[in-house]
Amino acid sequence: MAIESHVLTVTEVIEETSDAKSVAFEVPDELQETFAYTPGQFLTVAIPSDRTGLAARCYSLSSSPHSGRHQITVKRTADGYASNWICDNVKVGDTLRLLPPSGIFTPKDINADLLLWGGGSGVTPVISIARTALEKGSGKVVLFYANRDQESVIFAGELRDLVAEHPERFTVVHWLESVQGLPSPEGIKLFASYFSTYTSFCCGPPPFMKAVATALKELEVPRERRHQEKFVSLGGNPFGNVEELVAFEEKLAEADDPTEADDVAPTRTPTFAGPVSLEVELDGKHYAFDDWDGSQVLLEYLESKGVDAPFSCREGNCSSCACIVLEGELEMQHNDVLDAEDLADGIRLTCQALPLTELLKISYNG
Ligand SMILES: Cc1cc2nc3c(=O)[nH]c(=O)nc-3n(C[C@H](O)[C@H](O)[C@H](O)COP(=O)(O)OP(=O)(O)OC[C@H]3O[C@@H](n4cnc5c(N)ncnc54)[C@H](O)[C@@H]3O)c2cc1C
Ligand code: FES
Description:
By secondary structure, this protein is α/β, with parallel strands linked by helices. It has 9 helices and 18 strands. The protein has 3 domains: 6-101 and 238-254, Translation factors (Elongation Factor Tu (Ef-tu), domain 3), CATH 2.40.30; 114-229, Rossmann fold; 276-363, Ubiquitin-like (UB roll) (Roll).
């Protein structure tokens, strides 16, 4: 099943650095609700392709939801297809097909003290969080921002402005590899130790994220205050029938190195075939069903029951569909995004989940 996608017009293209561009979209009134987002969420973009019809890629919103903007920021990936296509081709007035905002890399409490970590283009979701927290929240915000060199620092000017506007609340620490070398695990841990009571959001290259995650764990920062976003390319097509997109592609025609998942769950055949007694908590609502036979993954089963469950890639790549298992057990067919600790915490991807037990209780409110 495809998610309903929408074609939006590009209103602005900003050259942030020599290899990164921001792209802003106009969201018409009738789609404002569909495209409402929380800071740290992402859009999924359909990029036309001669080879596959389209390539689907996720891009975090770098704007604050309170600004009224819908802006993504795309950094060229060496030899990458979609990021270079966007940076080379997209201009004001073009249209792009998008899936609505999605993702769980978003603060539950905007008033909390926040420790943000950005590595290169990983700054995109965390600047959205920073902007929102500074505008709407009351806590302190610290950003540790690592880049190759001065020229590759995205949002340098805006970060300076934000610090000037919120000198008591916002601190930015820049780390330049060209000057200081790669940030060491010891240095990251020392830095983090000053803010161990803060809630952490980290996005960047895998070694950077691993060093931050290790430091926070060693500092015994509890799991609910440690969040990370992995940038991976979707392998499949959540947009559905490519034929439907022909008009869009014609218009535009005129013109895995996947992040390692620390521990990927093995693919196995489910050992339980229902019927399952299932209880679900989602957005303050409670559902109970008793005829899931395991012939569909959990997400599809919930959809068949009319539950508006979250999802994006449907491939185990993005974690939009994640739930927490409160009772019972689920088996995932594929997982490119949850690490060992997520799994130990009972987090599962519903788009990949099949039942292993007769009784299951899950919550999306984790
Ligand atoms: C939640 C999330 C948020 C993200 N946010 C951001 C962000 O804010 N900013 C950002 O820059 N990145 C972000 N990313 C990463 C982004 O989605 C892409 O992974 C990144 O831009 C690299 O994509 P790419 O196609 O350029 O490179 P690659 O994925 O490395 O490109 C190579 C791939 O493209 C395929 N390919 C090559 N040629 C073609 C063709 N002609 N047609 C079809 N496929 C082809 C190849 O087979 C190969 O699989 C995010 C990822 C996730 C999951
Ligand atoms: S929808 Fe992306 S992991 Fe399930």
